[in-house]
Design brief:
single chain; alpha/beta; Rossmann fold; eight-stranded parallel sheet; 16 helices; globular; binds nicotinamide-adenine-dinucleotide; NAD(P)_epim/dehydratase; Epimerase_deHydtase; L-threonine 3-dehydrogenase, mitochondrial
């Protein structure tokens, strides 16, 4: 029986792989041996041809010449790295593992400051061959999979969301299993739905989301865990709440209002909120989110009683956020113009997230509460504004 054929062809919507056959017999036997703890046998049984790299080196991998040290540091790839979270994650990981050990990738053109801050490479997660070349050529060991279409954007383009969030994830899972990577995939509060308990929402409960984003994230959680139990993939997943950041723009999620308010308050003194004033949602400052991501990746595997964890920090309504913001800008004028799509999504999501398992298993603890978060946002935006004023004067 040609197991590789059934494995490879069962999970792609994107049709053709450019060089699937060359790797799959070894891969399948490797996976089987991995599951039975006989890794060496797969390699022993593999023919020379199977062990030869089958695709040419990527011509655009500009850092081939970078010689990675043979230290213990992981060699990291971040997909979808130019969104709200990826640049900050790269900064954190580069501090810890060294600049050249962390490669940021996306399908968009990076701004100058990002391009000059460390290795950047083009990578479309729908292009399996390109992904594999990057992993092989750069000897990647850890992969943070950030590419996705978020909730509101996903509802506006379901076929694209299905393709990026589901087909793209299949590519990532196979690459990660094939090359024994440690894989991080973020999930979200959006992986729950109106029939989930909302206050609080535990790790394990009914998950029937009603957005393509939520459906694709439940799929990612289940597929990652399946690959973990079936093939030994070191899959790790956190369900993020809405993330608030000052130096990066949100990518079209339902919690975006909680970032926009700061920009509008400073620019115009007026803010129009697209959710009702009493819509309670779990939120987190970006530094807490990125630290949690590094911590779960570094946590000893034996301490993890599960592979997908809720993480939480605070939970507030637009009304409560406005009150806190008005402590800094009392003259802020707020109006509400509810966006029906976003409101329906928010009304189906958790209000309070129960993250007790993360706190117990690997010591998760948030740093920022609401006043800290608001202070930090204004401090950052104030200093950014002064810098840009100085630049204009000069
Ligand atoms: N930001 C949040 O509040 C939040 C909350 C929960 C979960 N998450 C998850 O965290 C991850 C990162 O979120 P974000 O806010 O940075 O997202 P974002 O929307 O800001 O960025 C996503 C990136 O993916 C890239 N992308 C799209 N199609 C791609 C493709 N085919 N190949 C490669 N890249 C592609 C986009 O160019 C974009 O830069 C996502 O998986 C998201 O679901 C984010």
């Amino acid at each position: 029986m040609d197991n590789s054929h059934s494995f490879k062809n069962s999970n792609w919507l994107d049709g053709e792989r450019l060089c699937p056959i060359n790797v799959s017999p070894l891969f399948f036997s490797f996976l089987l041996c991995k599951a039975t703890g006989k890794k060496g046998e797969a390699l022993k049984n593999a023919s020379h041809e199977e062990l030869e790299p089958s695709c040419q080196a990527a011509s655009d991998a500009s850092f081939h010449s970078v010689s990675f040290s043979e230290s213990d540091h992981p060699r990291v790839l971040i997909t979808g790295g130019l969104g709200q979270l990826g640049v900050g994650l790269a900064k954190l990981l580069r501090k810890r593992f060294g600049k050249n050990n962390v490669i940021l990738s996306d399908i968009r053109k990076p701004p100058d400051n990002v391009f000059h801050s460390g290795p950047f490479i083009y990578s479309d997660i729908l292009d399996y061959k390109n992904l594999r070349e990057i992993v092989v050529n750069n000897r990647i060991t850890w992969l943070f999979h950030y590419s996705a279409l978020l909730s509101a954007v996903g509802e506006a383009n379901v076929p694209l969301a299905r393709s990026v969030n589901i087909t793209g994830l299949h590519n990532i899972l196979d690459i990660a299993a094939e090359h024994s990577l440690r894989l991080f995939v973020p999930s979200t509060i959006g992986a729950f739905g109106p029939t989930s308990p909302r206050n609080p929402t535990p790790d394990l409960c009914i998950q029937r989301p009603r957005t393509i984003y939520g459906v694709s994230k439940v799929h990612a959680e289940l597929m990652g865990e399946y690959y973990h139990y079936r093939y030994g993939l070191d899959f790790r997943c956190l369900r993020y709440p809405g993330i608030i950041s000052a130096d990066s723009k949100p990518g079209g999620g339902t919690t975006d209002y909680a970032v926009q308010i700061f920009h509008d308050a400073m620019k115009t003194g007026k803010f129009q909120c697209n959710l009702k004033p009493d819509t309670r949602l779990p939120m987190m400052y970006i530094d807490d989110c990125l630290r949690a991501t590094l911590e779960i990746m570094e946590a000893p595997a034996e301490g993890l009683s599960m592979r997908t964890y809720n993480i939480s920090a605070l939970s507030f309504t637009p009304e409560e956020l406005v009150q806190e913001v008005q402590k800094h800008i009392p003259e802020l004028e707020v109006s509400y113009k509810v966006d029906a799509v976003r409101q329906a999504i928010a009304d189906s999501w958790p209000m309070i997230f129960d993250d007790s398992n993360a706190r117990q298993d690997w010591g998760w603890k948030h740093d920022y509460d609401l006043p800290d978060l608001v202070n930090t946002m204004f401090t950052f935006l104030d200093s950014a504004r002064s810098i840009s004023r100085v630049a204009q004067v000069n």
